[in-house]
Design a protein that fits this description.
Elements: E1 2-11, H1 15-28, E2 32-38, E3 45-55, E4 66-71, H2 74-80, E5 84-92, H3 94-97, E6 106-108, H4 111-119, H5 125-137, H6 142-151, H7 157-177, E7 193-196, H8 197-207, E8 212-215, H9 222-230, H10 232-235, E9 238-241, H11 245-257, E10 262-267, H12 268-284, E11 288-294, H13 311-316, E12 325-327, H14 332-349, E13 352-358, H15 359-363, E14 365-368, H16 386-389, H17 434-454, E15 460-463, E16 469-474, H18 478-488, E17 494-499, E18 501-503, H19 513-519, E19 522-527, H20 533-542, E20 548-551, H21 560-570
Parallel strand pairs: 1-4, 4-5, 5-6, 8-9, 8-10, 10-11, 11-13, 12-13, 16-17, 16-19, 19-20
Antiparallel strand pairs: 1-3, 2-3, 2-14, 7-14, 12-18, 15-17
Helix pairs in contact: 1-5, 4-5, 4-7, 5-7, 6-7, 8-9, 8-14, 11-12, 18-21
């Protein structure tokens, strides 16, 4: 079983509400779920859609073919009717859209009239739509009714009863009237966790002991701040909405300097403002974690669309030379664990750590049985209490074999804690001499970097270990690459190489991924950008050039049929 449901309509029509509710029902019914959204940068109007893929097998990408289209506006029919599968159905309200369709695959459900009849308010048309879709799929309403009770608990019994009545009415109408429906999706089993990429990063931050988060709201990173703010009281986290991104990163640095695990988040335009603060973190060796949620640029670009166009910006951002780590999770699960690793390495090596995501991963929902909290790390690398007080001498920037120096908390001992954005000596005082400058650069860069590189995990290999064709990618391409390998492996030796720990590139001691690429007959780098930024990084750092690149930069993610079609054409005969 593998169905795709698309809900289309204008901003303000509750498209996300319908999509979120259905996704919860499916995940709690035991199904595997993958969702993605496409929305315009306006509060009302325009055309948006929420796409859900539901299956009894793991799914991690979106398909072009749609099985059920819920059309809340005329544009949904105009744009998406051609995407219907052979057994697909379009659900719409003829009276609300002021047009009637007589084709057999149209199901006219009077969303508004049923909402007024049973709920007394047309706003409940969305609840009717949810009930109707479940009726078309042959699913019962038990899980939906529990979601309604939980969602509207604070609004009282009257609102709960009205929504339950409208859901039942939509369900009954679809069961009776959809004679063409051949779908079957009865509850499968144990409930699954449903989580977005943004929530997984926020979850990872909370689980890693983050105590301060500052940001200026900017799509698509705002969801991280919203998640952490929702845990503020429960876990003693201070969340600050800064006046701009310059303030946001400097607040995070101040909190980190004072002894708290700190994080900030933004998108490309905001990160541009943070770059001076990034260099400040580097020379003062203050740990900080930055979530950078990419979107198409330059400037405001397409603010609600997706792209992987800021890898090289992140790699080269900041004046001067200093180490950093860049993680680019491909799934919410990776986002959770890599956020934890970002905090650990930032604190351990006193460096900035960047988590690169994008709108596609940030807003998409995935299902899991759960995460393993036992493998999380939360070591405290700072000097606190007696460990700090008992030091005979404290040099904040002492020259050490590892390049990592004691990190004391100001005011936690009688030792003076000095830091400065100018070049400095071991105590933190400003210097001008070349000899000290050389030693400080060696300490910050050349002593730390080899140790940091040993911490970086090799890319994930999925598919044939002796592959003739290798498709490589990074970040949010994980799911689409993995499913493409599944589709294409039926008639060719193909594998995926996915990088989620992007910089520094991993050493090849345990897995020589460069040798694997070199031995393949054809190699492809798949990216959501126009210039092949990751392919350029691999060439610059490892000297390897891919056979070809498959690039998409229209602000939309790859669809499964789109990528497999391109790969099929270019690998024919291998």
């Amino acid at each position: 079983m593998d169905y795709t449901i698309k809900i289309g309509g204008e901003a303000g029509q509750g498209i996300q509400t319908i999509g979120d509710t259905l996704s919860k029902v499916f995940s709690r019914s035991g199904y595997h779920v993958f969702t993605h959204q496409d929305y315009e940068s306006r509060v009302r109007g325009g055309h948006n859609f929420f796409q859900i893929r539901i299956s009894d097998q793991p799914v991690m990408s979106s398909r072009r073919v749609v099985d059920i289209l819920v059309a809340m506006d005329k544009e949904s029919i105009t744009y998406h009717e051609k995407e219907l599968s052979d057994t697909g159905q379009i659900v719409y309200d003829a009276s609300a859209l002021h047009e009637k369709h007589d084709k057999p695959y149209f199901l006219d459900v009077p969303f508004v009239d049923l909402a007024l009849e049973k709920g007394g308010n047309k706003i409940m048309a969305n609840t009717v739509a949810v009930g109707a879709v479940l009726g078309m799929l042959g699913m019962d309403l038990d899980i939906l009714l529990n979601i309604i009770k939980s969602t509207f608990k604070k609004k009282g019994k009257q609102v709960i009863d009205a929504n339950i009545a409208t859901a039942r009415q939509g369900h009954a109408f679809a069961v009776k009237e959809c004679v063409q429906c051949s779908f079957s999706a009865a509850s499968k089993g144990e409930s699954k966790m449903l989580i977005t990429g943004n929530d997984a990063i926020g979850f990872g931050a909370v689980a890693s002991g983050c105590r301060f988060y500052s940001a200026y709201p900017m799509t698509p990173s705002t969801g991280i701040m919203n998640y952490i703010a929702g845990k503020e009281k429960e876990y003693g986290i201070l969340v600050e909405q800064a006046e701009d991104e310059i303030a946001a990163i400097n607040m995070a640095l101040g909190a980190s300097f004072a002894g708290a695990r700190a994080m900030t988040g933004t998108s490309g335009g905001g990160f541009a403002l943070m770059i001076e603060g990034l260099s400040l973190a580097a020379i003062t060796e203050i740990p900080v974690v930055i979530a950078l949620a990419m979107r198409p640029g330059p400037a405001t670009g397409l603010p609600t669309r997706t792209e992987q166009g800021e890898l090289l910006l992140t790699l080269h951002a900041g004046h001067g030379e200093f180490p950093r780590v860049i993680f680019a999770p491909g799934t919410p699960e990776q986002a959770f664990y890599l956020t934890n690793k970002a905090f650990d390495l930032a604190e351990k090596y006193q460096i900035p750590a960047v988590i690169l995501t994008d709108q596609y991963l940030a807003d998409s929902q995935w299902t899991y049985n759960g995460f393993d909290y036992g493998i999380l790390k939360q070591d405290d690398y700072r000097l606190r209490g007696d460990a700090f007080k008992d030091l005979a001498e404290y040099k904040r920037y002492a020259f050490t074999d590892s390049g990592v120096t004691p990190l004391g908390i100001p005011g936690d001992a009688e030792h003076l804690v000095v830091t400065d954005s100018d070049e400095h000596d071991e105590e933190g005082h400003i210097i001008e001499d070349g000899a000290t400058r050389n030693r400080m650069v060696d300490k910050r860069v050349f002593k730390k970097l080899p140790a940091i590189q040993q911490e970086i995990e090799p890319p994930t290999l999925y598919g044939d270990t002796e592959a003739d064709v290798i498709i490589a990618g990074w970040g949010s391409q994980y799911g689409i690459l993995k499913e493409a390998v599944d589709v294409l492996s039926l008639d060719r030796k193909i594998a995926m190489l996915h990088f989620s720990e992007v910089y520094p590139l991993p050493v090849r001691d345990s897995f020589d991924y460069l040798d694997l690429l070199t031995r393949a007959k054809k190699t492809f780098c798949v990216e959501n950008n126009a210039t092949g930024q990751f392919a350029r990084l691999i060439k610059a750092e490892a000297g390897f050039t891919f056979s070809a690149q498959i690039l998409k930069y229209d602000g939309r993610p790859f669809l499964l049929e789109e990528l497999t079609g391109a790969l099929h054409e270019q690998t024919r005969g291998l």
